[in-house]
Amino acid sequence: MYAIVETGGKQYRLSEGDTVRVERLEGEKGGQVVIESVLAARTDKGLQVGRPRIEGARVTGTIIKHGRGRKIRVFKFKRRKGYRRLQGHRQGYTEIRIDQITLKPAAKKRRRTAKSAAESKSSDEPVEKDQE
Asked: 10 near 22, Cβ under 8 Å?
């Protein structure tokens, strides 16, 4: 079983027991995180795709640690002008362990046949009394 979730503007494919680094989330080390933006999920019964999200689905995890990624250098340069700028950046992240993927059972769709449509139409009509 796995779920495709969206957090921090990125999408991740997660299974129970996975450890993943996502964009920085609020919370303390050892705290619980709930991601409710589940876009799709694969179960034993098949693939369930949301439009755009699956209603009632959630992924819960535990925060392992917060940190900052590798430093990247942003260098701007214009030739023959003496213009040079060097800037560094380290993106913050939260490492979480996925504990549980919960899906609300899909509601069964009732198919209306011509017979059931006619029955419901006849039962919905008000009964008028004869005025004499």
From this structure: yes
